[in-house]
Design a protein that fits this description.
About 35% of the residues lie in helices and about 25% in strands. The protein has one domain. With about 130 residues, it is α+β, with helices and mostly antiparallel strands. It has four helices and five strands; from the N terminus they run βββαααββα. The radius of gyration is 14 Å and the shape is globular. β2 and β3 form a beta hairpin.
Length: about 130
């Protein structure tokens, strides 16, 4: 994708104990309406997860993150929300919710390279 792109991104957060409001950055969503694109990158740091919640089940967290990813990518396994268009999926994924998988509020940006920007954001925000 060449040329300038207006995009939005949000950080995907794992919130093991919602009532404590502590979270672990576990991925990023990058959405570009003009490219009709959602990029998602996820990585779970189990050591950080254990430091926040020793009783958290990493495999269950991974399953929840995979569901989130399937919706973002619009795969058949993502269910009815995954069948929505990219803007609707991004808005649904970034809606405020009290669950173990949440996102930051969306932030805007402008770039020439959506793939490179997604990788840079992932490295900076998730590591």
């Amino acid at each position: 994708m060449h040329g300038k792109h207006l995009y939005e991104y949000a950080v995907i957060r794992v919130v093991p104990a919602v009532h404590r409001e502590e979270f672990l950055n576990a991925g990023i969503l990058l959405f570009c309406k003009s490219a009709n694109l959602i990029k998602v990158r996820i990585a779970l740091n189990e050591a950080k997860l254990r430091s926040l919640a020793g009783d958290a089940d990493p495999e269950q967290v991974r399953l929840n993150l995979r569901s989130f990813e399937r919706i973002a990518l619009g795969t058949a396994e993502g269910g009815p929300i995954a069948r929505l268009d990219a803007p609707s999926r991004f808005r649904w994924l970034t809606a405020v919710r009290s669950s173990s998988i949440q996102t930051s509020r969306p932030h805007p940006g402008y770039c020439d390279d959506l793939e490179g920007t997604a990788e840079r954001l992932f490295a900076e925000l998730v590591g």
